[in-house]
Write a structure and sequence with these properties.
Blueprint lengths: L1 H5 L6 H28 L3 E3 L1 H14 L4 H13 L10 H4 L1 H16 L2 H7 L7 H7 L5 H14 L2 H21 L23 E2 L8 H6 L13 E2 H11 L3 E3 L7 E2 L7 H9 L1 H22 L3 H7 L2 H6 L7 H12 L2 H18 L5 H16 L4 H10 L2 E2 L5
Parallel strand pairs: 2-3
Antiparallel strand pairs: 1-4, 5-6
C-alpha cells in the first residue's frame, strides 16, 4: 500500500513539484533546442546522442513526432498571418489558438500535403519509423506507467501536468500571445512579438519577434537586456563538443572607409531589419518630435500616435490605422518626406526581379536623393547606410 501511494522513490510532497518542474523544463528544452532550432531551422548541428535523447523524451512526454512538428512549424513561417497559417490568431482568433492550439496542431499534422512539402529532411531511421511513428501513443503510456511506479498515485497528476505543458506553453502562449501581445524589436512581415525579454520559462521561445526576424538564428536574445536560456544550454553543449552553431542573427558591420558597391547593398539587405530599426530611431523619431513640438492642439491630436504607425510594418496596418496615417502625412510635409523615403528603401530589397546592377543603381539614387532632401537626420542616415559592409570571413 505504501508503494502504491508513494511509489518506489517515496518522495516528500514538495519533491513532486520539483520533479514535475524539472521534467517539464527538459521537455521545453527538447522542443526549443532539438525540434525548433535544430530540426526545423537548421541553426544547430547536434551530436546524435543529444538528439536521440531529446527525440526519445519527446515521444515519452508529448507523443510528438519530429516530422509532424517540423512540417507544421515551417508552414507557419512560410504562410504566417494568412488564412493558411495553421495557428494564426489573426484568422483563428486568439482564444482558439490559446485554448485549442494543440488541436490546431494535430489537425494540420494529419495533412499529408503539409508533411510532404514542409517535413523534408527530418529523421527516417529505424527507431523513427518502427517505434515513434508506428506507436505514437505508446510513449505517453510508458511515461504514465513510469510516473505511477516512481511516484505512486501523485504520479498521475505529474503525468497530466506533463501532457498539458507543451499544448499550453508552446501552442497557446507562443503561437497565440506571441502573435498578439508584447514588444517588437524588429518590424518583420508578420505580427510576432516578444512576450517577455527574459526567455526563462519557455527556454527562449518568449523572444518570438526576434526569432521571426531571424528564423535560422540559433540565438534568440538580440538586445543587451534580453536573456535566452536555450542559448545558455547551447553554449554549455558546445563547450562539451555536443553541438555546433551554424547560424546566428547578423550584426551590422560599419566601415566608413569602404567603397560603395554590390557588397554594400548585400550587407544592407542582410541587415534590413536592423536598417529599418535604425531608420525609425534616427530619422522618423526626430522628425515626429520636431512636428509635435511646434503643433497646435488640433494638429497635435491629428499627429498623435503617428510615429508608431510610421515605424510599424506596413502590411500589418489595419484600415483605421492606414486612414489615420494618411491624414497625418497629408498635414505634415516633413513626415510625409521621411516616410516616403522609408517606403522607397524597402522597395529596393522587396523587388526580387531586379538585377544586381539595377539594385546598386537604385541604392545610389536613394542615397543621393536623401542627401539632397534638406533633412539633416535623413542626410546622416544616408551617409551611415553607405558604410554597411559584409563581415570579413576567415
Amino acid at each position: 500500500m505504501h508503494i502504491l501511494l508513494h511509489g518506489l522513490l517515496g518522495l516528500p510532497v514538495w519533491a513532486y513539484f520539483v520533479v514535475a518542474a524539472l521534467m517539464i523544463h527538459f521537455t521545453i528544452m527538447s522542443v526549443t533546442l532539438y525540434l525548433h532550432r535544430t530540426a526545423t531551422h537548421r541553426g544547430l548541428d547536434m551530436h546524435p546522442l543529444v538528439s536521440h535523447v531529446m527525440r526519445a523524451w519527446l515521444w515519452l512526454s508529448t507523443g510528438m513526432l519530429t516530422k509532424e512538428w517540423v512540417a507544421v512549424h515551417r508552414k507557419h513561417h512560410a504562410l504566417c498571418e494568412t488564412a493558411e497559417d495553421p495557428h494564426s490568431p489573426k484568422f483563428k482568433g486568439l482564444k482558439k489558438v490559446v485554448l485549442e492550439g494543440a488541436e490546431l496542431y494535430r489537425e494540420e499534422a494529419q495533412n499529408p500535403e503539409t508533411l510532404e512539402k514542409y517535413g523534408r529532411g527530418t529523421p527516417e531511421d529505424w527507431v523513427e519509423t518502427r517505434v515513434y511513428s508506428a506507436h505514437g501513443k505508446l510513449g505517453v503510456a510508458i511515461m504514465l506507467i513510469a510516473d505511477v511506479a516512481l511516484f505512486g498515485i501523485p504520479g498521475v497528476t505529474i503525468w497530466a501536468v506533463q501532457m498539458m505543458s507543451i499544448p499550453f506553453f508552446a501552442a497557446g502562449v507562443v503561437n497565440g500571445i506571441g502573435h498578439f501581445y508584447g514588444y517588437r524589436n524588429f518590424e518583420c512581415k508578420d505580427a510576432a512579438t516578444n512576450v517577455l525579454p527574459w526567455g526563462v520559462i519557455l527556454g527562449g521561445e518568449e523572444l518570438h519577434n526576434n526569432h521571426h526576424a531571424f528564423p535560422s538564428s540559433a540565438k534568440f536574445a538580440l538586445r543587451p537586456w534580453e536573456f535566452d536560456m536555450g542559448w545558455m544550454y547551447i553554449r554549455a553543449l558546445k563547450w562539451l563538443g555536443m553541438v555546433q552553431v551554424r547560424r546566428v542573427a547578423p550584426t551590422p558591420v560599419i566601415n566608413h572607409e569602404a567603397q560603395v558597391g554590390l557588397d554594400t547593398v548585400e550587407a544592407i539587405i542582410l541587415n534590413r531589419l536592423h536598417v529599418l530599426r535604425h531608420y525609425g530611431r534616427s530619422v522618423i523619431a526626430p522628425a515626429y518630435k520636431a512636428e509635435k513640438q511646434g503643433a497646435c492642439a488640433m494638429r497635435s491630436k491629428i499627429l498623435s500616435g503617428t510615429r508608431r504607425l510610421m515605424i510599424k510594418e506596413r502590411g500589418l496596418l489595419n484600415a483605421v490605422e492606414q486612414r489615420r496615417l494618411r491624414i497625418a502625412l497629408a498635414r505634415s510635409q516633413a513626415l510625409d518626406t521621411v516616410y516616403g523615403f522609408r517606403v522607397k528603401l524597402e522597395k529596393l530589397w522587396d523587388d526580387q526581379a531586379q538585377s544586381n546592377e539595377t539594385l546598386l543603381q537604385g541604392f545610389k539614387e536613394w542615397c543621393h536623393e536623401a542627401e539632397q532632401s534638406g533633412v539633416a537626420s535623413l542626410q546622416e542616415f544616408a551617409a551611415h547606410l553607405r558604410s554597411y559592409s559584409l563581415p570579413q570571413t576567415a
